[in-house]
Amino acid sequence: MLVGRVVGNIVSTRKNEHLVGFKFLEVQVYERGQPTQRHVVAVDSVGAGTGEKVLIVSGSGARVASGSRDCPVDMVIVGIVDE
């Protein structure tokens, strides 16, 4: 699991049929409580917005969190961190 901060939205009008209806967000990854230069694109499953600190799962856990094992995702936001 990773911690990061949402820094923007990713708009994609054409995508895999299994991804229709999903919102994509750009997230800056944190390490040891500090922001890094690493940014990832994650599917939003909790209604996160720009500026919010979030929890992200990756790999096979991301497919399960997306609600569909057929969904081709590698990163899913699964929580919003209370600060």
| Total count of strands | 5
H/E series: EEEEHE
How far is the first residue's CA from the last residue's CA? Answer: 18 Å
Helical fraction equals: under 10%
Choose one word for the global shape. globular
Q: Please give the count of helices.
A: 1
Which runs of at least 5 residues are low in confidence (pLDDT < 50)?
none
Radius of gyration: 12 Å
Give the mean pLDDT: 89
Beta-strand residue percentage: over 45%
Walkthrough of the structure:
The chain has 1 helix and 5 strands, in the order ββββαβ. It is 8% helix and 49% strand. The longest helix is centred in the C-terminal third of the chain and has 7 residues, at 60-66.
List keywords for this structure.
single chain, 83 residues, mainly beta, 5-stranded mixed barrel, 1 helix, 49% strand, globular
Write the layout of secondary structure elements.
Blueprint: E1 2-10, E2 23-31, E3 34-44, E4 53-58, H1 60-66, E5 75-80
Parallel strand pairs: 3-5
Antiparallel strand pairs: 1-2, 1-4, 2-3, 4-5
What is the gist of this entry?
This protein is mainly beta. It has one helix at 60-66, and strands at 2-10, 23-31, 34-44, 53-58, 75-80.
